[in-house]
Amino acid sequence: MIGPVDRTTALSCHSGNSGNTIPANTTEAAIFYRLSGGRVCYDRTAERLYFVESTHFPVARILTLILQGIGISPPVEQLHIDVNGFFNGARRISLRAEHARAILTALRIAGIEILPLNKAIAEK
Questions:
Q1: Which helix (H) or strand (E) holds 115?
Q2: How far is it between the farthest Cα atoms of the chain?
Q3: 67 in a domain, yes or no?
């Protein structure tokens, strides 16, 4: 088993050159490979936020706190990178534009990079 990743290593992985957007016609599986603990993807057209959880960048905790403050509780969906559902991929949450602004602001303040999706996601 691989042990926990220290904060220095997590920040080094986060600082890699990933570009500042995700191209059009990107599948959800491809989005997963662009994410990290310190990087999320927001699809404005579909009103969806994609993220992975990390000890050093607690995206789910930030989402929970902001959504509780707003007074809503949309479900967080676990996506899988295989057709059998054995391997977890990203998590996905649907957010209306007015809620997304508060969430994205809180994530930026926490030092999390937001990758915008250029266009709607290609169908699987």
A1: strand 113-116
A2: 42
A3: yes
